[in-house]
Amino acid sequence: MATKVGMVSLGCPKNRVDSEVMLGLLEQAGYELTAAADEAEVLIVNTCGFIDKAKQESIDTILEMNQYRETGQLKALVVAGCLSQRYQNHLWDQLPEVDAMVGTGEFHRIVEAVDGALHGSRPGFWGEMPVGGIERPRRLTTPQYTAYLKIAEGCDHTCAFCAIPQMRGGYRSRPLADIVAEARQLVAGGVKELVLIAQDSTIWGHDLYGHPELPRLLYELAEIPGLQWMRLMYSYPTQISPALVEAMRQIPQVAPYLDMPLQHAHPDLLQKMGRPFRREKTERVIQMIRDAIPGVTLRTTFIVGFPGETDAHFQTLLEFIEAMRFDHVGVFTYSPEEGTRAEPLGDPVPAAVKERRRREAMLLQRRLVGSVRGRHIGQIMPTIIEETGSTVSVGRGPTDAPGIDGVTYVKGTFPVGSVIPVRILGVKEYDLVGEPAT
């Protein structure tokens, strides 16, 4: 009988893709996959190490999974992902419960790690994974109609608050042929929406061709029969070029949606954060996008409480949010990270102040979002049905990314995974309400 393996995947969609590849490799090697932790003989925790809360969640999850040695069938506990890459020696010393570890650069060796863990050798694999030429079978953990497509590994940016380069290495674009081949395989398996992800999706290809080539990739992906949507996430403002915007405008499969984490709006804070752009340039980029793609949906994120942020700095951020009228805004409180350029600055902004600023920014966005989203009333949007009930279905249109944005409530019952035209009738806070357009 095949050994049963379970997986707990924490953190971002990039981690989720790694988890899906690991599951695919294990299944290919003859292991049986299970979603029931109490049935698993091997449990893998793919950890996140981005901020303190994520690190604590990862540790808590490792300890929680280890309890299945007593209450379930667990024989081996494997830790993968960012935490194991960044704190490998510390974890070995502090967590004797862990039987094997795999870093972010070696997750393709998960079968070796599991085999070794089951035989008591306590293996550990760390390094910088090649982005091309390795097998990437995937067992999707998303609904069949949508999938994340990772187009690059690592990051070359030097943002003062971020430890991602320490955990993921330098930026390495996946070869065009590898990406397209994986996309074809996903679409052949029923995927209708591909969400393109990387630490910075906009510079894809710069290390392969000497300059960014994301538009070229989009045109290639658009040739895949059956692909209905592509969605761009993690776009870096300084790399959003007229050529990219023109490709988004011309290619029907590219959703009129752009995720562009900005982090702040005050020049003093942007400089301290190591963000190489200023508000004036950001506003010009946003206007260029909106002029070329009327009705485009823009998502962004901000950090409050970065060392040195004053009430005046924060007010500038609020003014920027109100002026720009983004469709989707996420706001996070700053936490210092070991080994980053911001670590010597300490954490001088009190936690209560950071949380108050976060709430105030989100309340502002909540007041704005009704009128911002209201511009879609009367429009007809293609909508993927994700849940269905007796009288109302829940779907998602081009304006909303999976898992982080709003949904569309549609009158009627429709098959999950189907794409139907929906006329938008109203707005319910962050969500849209509509009816089938016949």
TrEMBL record:
Occurrences of domain TRAM (ranges): 374-438
Gene3D superfamilies recorded: Methylthiotransferase, N-terminal domain, Nucleic acid-binding proteins, tm_1862 like domain
Record key words, sorted: 4Fe-4S, Cytoplasm, Iron, Iron-sulfur, Metal-binding, Ribonucleoprotein, Ribosomal protein, S-adenosyl-L-methionine, Transferase
Record bears the keyword GTP-binding: no
MTTase N-terminal domain mapped to chain residues: 3-119
Pfam family, one: TRAM_2
Cofactor, free-text remark: Binds 2 [4Fe-4S] clusters. One cluster is coordinated with 3 cysteines and an exchangeable S-adenosyl-L-methionine.
Subcellular location, record wording: Cytoplasm
Main location: cytoplasm
EC number per UniProt: 2.8.4.4
Catalysed reactions, semicolon-separated: L-aspartate(89)-[ribosomal protein uS12]-hydrogen + (sulfur carrier)-SH + AH2 + 2 S-adenosyl-L-methionine = 3-methylsulfanyl-L-aspartate(89)-[ribosomal protein uS12]-hydrogen + (sulfur carrier)-H + 5'-deoxyadenosine + L-methionine + A + S-adenosyl-L-homocysteine + 2 H(+)
Start and end residues of each Radical SAM core domain: 141-371
Record GO terms (molecular function): 4 iron, 4 sulfur cluster binding; aspartic acid methylthiotransferase activity; catalytic activity, acting on a tRNA; metal ion binding; protein methylthiotransferase activity
SMART domains in alphabetical order: Elp3 (SM00729)
PANTHER family attached to this UniProt entry: RIBOSOMAL PROTEIN S12 METHYLTHIOTRANSFERASE RIMO, RIBOSOMAL PROTEIN US12 METHYLTHIOTRANSFERASE RIMO
Name of the protein in question: Ribosomal protein uS12 methylthiotransferase RimO
Gene source species: Sulfobacillus acidophilus (strain ATCC 700253 / DSM 10332 / NAL)
